[in-house]
Design a protein that fits this description.
Number of helices: 10
Order of helices and strands: EHEHEHEHEHEHHHHH
CATH topology of the largest domain: Rossmann fold
Strand content: 5-15%
Distance between the termini: 44 Å
Helix content: 40-55%
Shape: globular
Largest sheet: 6 strands, parallel
Length: 219
């Protein structure tokens, strides 16, 4: 059986215990931390030096402990549009999220609350999904973003439920289990969502799903 290459990660987190704990956790899943840094400036330098497969960064870091990590993520996506980035935070910071989602049409990006790390297998699956070009947005972030936007009136209640779960990074099979419906029903809802949002059938499925999520979040 072919064994995939380890995922190479640059990790930015100023809290030593959390940073080292996360590094150790990632190693269990064949994810190698090629650099672990504690501030946004060093993060940018580490990415330039190592060319990682994925960046994981905190939002609040030195020197100001504001949103330096998130701003660094936006800067990195400006320099390297296809670079997969997962932002971790104890809270929902929406000021720069739009810019992050706008980069590379929202592909290969994640925003998760740190409490999700405790759900180890789901967390690691989210990292891999982002590294492969997907988008994974924490439910709390989705709720905050939706509050700032007008709903998409053309979607039914069920279609909105499907799209919210899609934004959380779930597959059709998982969405079917969450909503207690058949996977075929989810497929029909997904097709209807894509049609209503005018997403071309020619796009790759993962790109269509990401674009649908972006349309929903932007309103």
């Amino acid at each position: 059986m072919h064994r995939r290459s380890p995922l190479r990660v640059v990790l930015a987190e100023d809290g030593v215990l959390f940073r080292e704990g996360l590094r150790s956790l990632l190693e269990r899943f064949d994810i190698v931390t090629v650099a672990a840094v504690s501030d946004a400036e060093t993060l940018v330098e580490a990415v330039a030096e190592h060319g990682p497969d994925l960046v994981i960064t905190d939002v609040r870091m030195p020197p100001g402990f504001g949103n330096e990590g998130l701003r660094a993520a936006v800067e990195l996506r400006t320099k390297h549009p296809a670079l997969p980035i997962v932002v971790l935070s104890h809270f929902v910071e929406t000021r720069y999220v739009d810019k992050l989602l706008d980069s590379n049409e929202g592909r290969a990006v994640g925003y998760l609350l740190k409490e999700r790390v405790a759900e180890v297998e789901n967390f690691v699956a989210s990292l891999r999904q982002v590294s492969e070009g997907g988008a994974v947005i924490d439910p709390s972030v989705i709720r905050r973003l939706v509050q700032r936007r007008d709903p998409l009136d053309q979607l039914t209640r069920r279609e909105r439920e499907v799209l919210i779960l899609m934004a959380e990074g779930h597959s059709n099979a998982r969405i079917a289990r969450e909503l207690t419906v058949s996977e075929a029903a989810v497929g029909k809802h997904t097709a209807s969502i894509m049609a209503k949002l005018g997403l071309a059938h020619g796009d790759a499925d993962i790109n269509r799903r990401v674009k649908a999520v972006l349309a929903f979040l932007r309103g």
